[in-house]
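Structural prep section.
Before we set up the soaks we want a predicted structure of the protein with magnesium ion in place, mainly to decide which crystallisation condition to try first. Input record follows.
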Amino acid sequence: MFLCGMPAGQTASGEEARLAALHQLNLLDTPPSESFDRITRMAAKIFDLPIAAVSLTDRDRQWFKSRIGVDHSSIPREKAPCGEVTDTGDLLIIPDLAADACYASSLLGQNGIRFYAGAPLTTRDGYVLGALCVLGTEARAVAADEVDALCDLAAMVMSQIELQHAFGRMDPLSGLPNRSQLMEDLGDLALDKAGTARFAVMVDLGQSHDIESISRIIGSTPIDQLVRDAAGILRTILGQDCNIYHVATTKFVFLSPPDVGEAAYLDFLSTALQTTRKGENSAIGITTAFGVVPLVHGKTDCTDMLRALNSAAYEAHFTASSISVYSDAMDEIHRRRFRLLRDFEDALQAGDQLRIVYQPRVGLSDRICGGAEALLRWRHPQFGDVPPGEFIPIVERSRFGKALTTFVLVSALKQLRAWKQAGLNLQLSVNVSACNLSEEDFAGEVASALAEHRVTAEALELEVTESAVMRDTRIALKHLHALSRMGISLAIDDFGTGYSSLAYLQQLPAQVVKIDQAFIRNLGKGERERTLVRSMISLSHDLGYRVVAEGVETGPEADVLQDMGCDEAQGYFFARPLEVEAFERWLATHRRPASGCGAADQAINE
Ligand code: C2E
Ligand code: MG
Ligand code: MG
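Run finished without errors. Recording the C-alpha cells verbatim:
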C-alpha cells in the first residue's frame, strides 16, 4: 500500500484541522532541541543508517524538527514518503525506492536514497503530525524488532512534544500558547521582523474579582467553560493564522496584522466585540474589554508592552466602547487609579478618611423633606477630597466594593438610630453597587445589619442602577425580591441612562424611579426635552412608581417638575449634600414641625 498523495478517505477539512493542531503546538520553525535529537540519534543507531529525522508535515513541506545526515531543514511535501505516513496514519516501509513506481522519481529517489522507514507521530486526538523516519542509501529489508523500535521511538517523540506542550508553553485549559510563549515569540519577531509596526490586543473577559465572585457562587467549572468558549470565539473572529495567547485566567493576547491603520483596526475590533456580545450567553459578554497597545518589533520592550496591555484593558472597562488604546496620559490616570484603589483599603481602616454626607429629598407639592440620600466622601491624606465619581467606580469594581457598601450602610443605619433616639424619623437611601447584587447573601446581610442597629426596614431605601441589575440579573432579582419582602424600599437610580426599557425594569420590585439629572438639566432647553421628562413621569406613574427628579438646581426647574406631577426632587436648589450637623440644621426648617416628615413617619414608629 505505497500510496502517493492524499488518500481517498482524507478530507480537506480533516487536513485543515490537522494543520491547526500542528500549528497550535508552535513547533514549526523552532530551533533544534537536544531532547528530540537524542531520539533521532537512537533511531539511526538502531537501524545502523546514516539518516534519521523527526519530520513534521506542514501544508506543503516536510519540516525537520530534528535531523541527522540531512542538510536541508525542509523538503517539499509532494512525493515525500513522510507526507504519505501523515496522510495514511500508517507505518511506511519502502525497501527500495528505485524499485518503487511512485518514489523512484521523487526528490529522495533522485538523490540516491534507496531505503525509507517512517512511523507516524500521532497526537492523542488522532492527528498525525508527521513521521519519525530513517533513510539509507542502499536497499534493505526490515526486521520485526526494528519496526517495534521505530514505533517506540515515535511514541517517545510524541511524549516529548506533549511534555513541552504541557509544561511551560501551553495553557492546559484553553490549549493556547501562554505568556511565556508570547514573550518568546515577541523576542523572535524583534529579530525577524524588526521595524514592523502592529497592535497588540488584550482581551479581558472580566476583571478578575468579578470572575472570582462569580466562581464563588456558581463554581469554577462554568468559568473553565467560559474560558474555552472565549478561546473558540476568538479563533473564529481572528482566523487560523492568528496566534492567540492565553496569558492569564481570563485574559488573551493577539497581534494585529503588520502595518494596519489604527482607525480601521479599532473598527474591526469594535465590530467583533459588538457582534459577539449579541450572541446568547456569549463568553465575550458585557464584562469583556479590549486593551490595545501600538508596538514596533525590535523597539518596544516586551515586558513593558504587557504592562501597558494590562493597563489599557483595565481602562477599557471604564469606557463606553469597552476598547481602550494605551497612551502615556492614560498610564498616568491608571497609576492614580491604582494608587486610589490601594489606599482605599487603608481608608476603610483609618476611621478619619471616609464619611457620609446627606442630601435631602423634598416633596415637590409641600417642599417638605421626606428623607435623604447617604453619599460617601473620601478625604485622602495626600490627594485631599477625591470626587466620588472618580473613586467609587474603581472601588466598586474591585474586591473592596462590598466593604464600601457595608461602610455606607452601617454608617447610615447608625445615623438613623441616633436620629430616632433624638425623635427624628427619617428615611435614608443608600446606593448599592453591582458587586453587591452578585454577592451570595446580600439580602441576608442587610437584614442582619438592620437587626443589629435596631432600625426598621421601612427607614431604609436602597438605590440600584439598571446596569447593576443587568450584570447578573438572576441573582440580582433574587436579592431585590428578598429585600422588598422585608419591607425595604427600592429605587431605580439614574433612570434613563441605561439601555433597558421600563417594561424590563418592571420585573424589579421597585417603588421609586429617580430620573437622572441629565434629563433635568435639559428641561430649560426646549419643548422636546420637557415632553421627554413629562412622559417619563407619567409612564412611571402608570406603572405604579413614585418619581424623584435628581439634580434640580433652580426654582423654575422645581416648579416645572411640580406641574408635571413629579413627586419628589433632590438637588442643589434645595440643598447640596450636607455634613450631618449641617443637615440637621437645614432639616429644622424643612420638615413638618411636630412629628418628623413624610412617608417615613408612619414607617419608623416601632
Ligand atoms: P447618585 O447616586 O446619582 O447621586 C447623586 C449625585 O448627584 C451626587 O453626586 C450628588 O452630589 C449629585 N447632585 C445632587 N444634586 C445635584 C445638583 O443639583 N446638581 C449636580 N450637578 N449634581 C447634583 P456625588 O455625591 O458626587 O456622587 C456621585 C455618584 O457616586 C452617585 O450618583 C453614586 O452613583 C455614587 N455614589 C456616591 N455615594 C455612593 C455610595 O455611598 N455608594 C455607592 N455605591 N455609590 C455612591
Ligand atoms: Mg443614588
Ligand atoms: Mg443618581
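Observations: The chain has three domains: 12-166, 179-332, 348-592.
Flagged for discussion at group meeting.
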